[in-house]
Specification:
The protein is of the alpha+beta class. It contains 3 helices and 5 strands. The protein is 35% helix and 24% strand. The strands form 2 sheets. The chain has a 3-stranded antiparallel beta sheet. Strands 3-4 form a two-stranded antiparallel sheet. The longest helix is centred in the N-terminal third of the chain and has 20 residues.
Length: 112
């Protein structure tokens, strides 16, 4: 996998299933449940902290005026809620290490 490849949900399910010995259906259920829990917590205004990985935080963005780059027309985007992510120190450190290997250093191992 190169840096320009996208690691989508399907690929994540494949990697986790291979590393854990769970079936792809079981792994998909776990991943879906995990993502639904994070989404639910953010919609409730809660922060989701995953030690060693990072934290997802709900945020409120104020309304702002933008200029459409294609037409030059002024556009107002109203206030809205969004989510932000702040990586943990460990993840920031891992991202800044050498990119010598193609495989992530903390890829799940096979725990059958």
């Amino acid at each position: 996998m190169t840096m320009n490849d996208i690691l989508n949900k399907g690929k994540i399910i494949d990697i986790v299933a291979e590393g854990t010995g769970l079936t792809k259906n079981e792994t998909a259920a776990v991943v879906d449940g995990f993502l639904a829990t994070i989404s639910w917590a953010l919609t409730q205004g809660q922060q989701v902290a995953l030690r060693g990985f990072g934290a997802f935080r709900p945020a409120q963005r104020a309304g702002r005026h933008f200029k459409n780059p294609h037409t030059g027309e002024a556009v107002f985007v109203g206030a809205h809620r969004t989510a932000g992510f702040r990586p943990a120190k460990e993840l920031r450190h891992a991202l800044n290490q050498s990119h010598d290997s193609e495989e992530p250093t903390n890829r799940p191992s096979n725990h059958k």
